[in-house]
Amino acid sequence: MGVQTPNLMRNKKTCRAVGIPTIDLSMDRTLVAQLIIRACEEHGFFRLTNHGVSSEIISRIEEQSYGFFAKSASEKQAAGPPTPFGYGCKSIGFHGDKGELEYLLLDANPSSIPESTKAISNDPEKFSCVVDDYVQAVRDLTCDILDLVAEGLGLEDRATFSRLIDDVESDSVFRVNHYPPFDQNQKVGFGEHSDPQILTILRSNDVGGLQICSCDGLWSSVPPNPSEFCVLVGDTFQALTNDRFKSVRHRVMANSNKPRLSMMYFGAPSLNAMVSPLPQMVSSHSPTLYKPFTWCEFKKAAFSLRLAGRRLDQFKYS
Ligand code: GA4
C-alpha cells in the first residue's frame, strides 16, 4: 500500500496528529532552539518531553485538583465566581460562551497565590503551597523556552521575552479544567480560540480531547500524554515576533467516558508592559504589522470579544 502522505491520512474535518512536533528538551541546546523556533513558526504548538518538572510537583497539584472537583456542587460554588479568580462552571468569559467543563482560575503571581486560593481548599496553606510549587516550576520552564527562542533568533539580549514573564508584576494566570465524562455524542468542551498571552504550558491526564487547528484549517487531535507538556504560542508572542510565530487556535472536544483534567499556565507580561513587534523582526520585506499596545489594553480588548474572536486584528495597522 506504500506510505501515506499526511493529506491522505486526514478526513474532512479532523485529522490525526500528523506532523505535530515533539521536542526533547534534554537534547543539544542549539538544536532544541532551532526546533522550537520552527515549531512556533509552522504550528504555534509543540509537545515537550524531558522538561525537567518533577513528577512529584505534578502529582501533588493533580491530587489537589481532583480533590477539589470531587466536592459537592455547593461547596465548589462557594469558591466562585471566577471574577477574576475562583471556581467557574460551564460559563466562559463574560459574553455568553459556554463549555462542557468546570474550572479553577487562579492568579499565578507568587505574591497573590495565597489570596487567590484562600476559598478553595479546607487546607488553604497546603493548597497554596502546592499551586505555588507547580506555578514556579512551569514559570521557570516557560522562561527557559523563551530564552532558547531568543538565542535561536540571534537576539543579543537573551532575556528579551522571558523578562516579560519573570516580572514580580506579571499578570500570568493558572487554570485547571475538569471535563466530566461523556457517553453520548462528542461535544465541544472548550470552544475554538487562541490564548491572548505570550506562551501557554498545558499538561493533561491521560484523557484526550485537545485539538489544534493547522494553517490549512484542519483540526488535529493531540494524543494525551501525562508525562509531557504541550506548549502553545499566544497572541502576544505573535505580535512580538511580527507574525513570524502564529498563535495556535485550539479547542477541546469532550468525547471520553473518563474525566479529562488539564492544567494551563498562561505566561503574560505585567499590565503596563508595552508590546510591539521587536525591531529585529521588522524589515522592509516585513513591515511592522501591529500598533504598540500595553498588555492591559490588549487584555481589555481580548476580554470584550467572544471566545473565538480574532483579538489581534484590532491592533493591526490597516
Ligand atoms: C483563553 C485563555 C485563558 O483560559 C483565559 C480565558 C478567558 C476566560 O476564560 O475568562 C477568556 C479567553 C481566555 C479568551 C477571550 C476571553 C477571555 C474567555 C474569553 C471569552 C483565562 C484568558 O486569559 O483568555
UniProtKB/TrEMBL annotation:
One of its GO terms (molecular function) is gibberellin 2-beta-dioxygenase activity. Residues 169-269 form the Fe2OG dioxygenase domain. The keyword Iron applies. InterPro entries: DIOX_N (IPR026992), IPNS-like_FE2OG_OXY (IPR044861), IPNS-like_sf (IPR027443), Iron_ascorbate_oxido_reductase (IPR050231), Oxoglu/Fe-dep_dioxygenase_dom (IPR005123). PROSITE patterns: FE2OG_OXY. It catalyses: gibberellin A1 + 2-oxoglutarate + O2 = gibberellin A8 + succinate + CO2. Transmembrane segments: none annotated. Keywords: Dioxygenase, Iron, Metal-binding, Oxidoreductase. Belongs to the iron/ascorbate-dependent oxidoreductase family. GA2OX subfamily. This is gibberellin 2beta-dioxygenase. It comes from Daucus carota subsp. sativus (Carrot).
